[in-house]
Amino acid sequence: MGLRYISVTQTQAQRGSAALGGTFRLSFRGAITNDIAVTNGVIAATDVQNALNALPTVPGPSNVGVTVAEDFTINSAVPYGHLFRITFTIPELQGNVQAIEVVPSYNLLTGSDAAVTVMTDGLETPQQRGFGLPSVRGNEVSGQFAVTYRGWTTAPIDFDASTTQVHTHTCAHPSLHHLRVVNVP
Asked: Taking a C-beta distance cutoff of 8 angstroms, is the pair 25, 141 a contact?
């Protein structure tokens, strides 16, 4: 499962500077969100989450494949910003999924030095993220595994084998005839 961050920042907020406002849009797998608004300098995590989950490229029942939480950080380099942690939560979006992107033509943020940045695959700098945890590239599961019991090992089993296939391989052991195999997600 990958971990992505979206940072919406305003690097200056002092007398005479404009407050953070406006709208922006994000893209995932080619689909573009509706406007995500900044209201009175605030962006709600639920607005980002609802915009991403409404995309046709986010599968799942009622499109609940993405959760968004705001990470509150103290960062002297970016003191006036929002940092959102994006987590893909359903199997169809696990592994090394494509990056969320900012759609430049819809980046209509206003305010002094306002910017929106997507941090992905651990490529951002500590100054960009403002804290110690980097974004994470998802893990793509593939390959084969084997089960070993009392010195006996099954033939290789594909990573996505059904419970019936795992049962067939493990029951080839001379004393494992009454084995129950359960898939626990």
From this structure: no
Token pair recorded at residue 134: 């980097």
| CA atoms 23, 28, 29, 35: torsion sign | negative
Site of tokens 């989950």: 53
Predicted local confidence at residue 35, as pLDDT: 94
The reported pTM is 0.63
Using one digit for the tens of pLDDT, what is the confidence trace for 74-113? 444 445 567 777 877 777 777 677 788 888 898 888 877 7
What is the C-alpha to C-alpha distance for residues 15 and 118, in angstroms, rounded to an integer? 28
* Phi, psi (degrees; rounded to nearest 5) at 120: -145, 150
Give residue for tokens 């390959």. Answer: 143
Place of tokens 């500590």: 126
What sign does the dihedral 59-91-117-74 (CA atoms) show? positive
Alpha helices in 54-181 (DSSP H): 126-129, 163-170
Instruction: Give the separation between CA 153 and CA 151, rounded to whole angstroms.
Output: 7
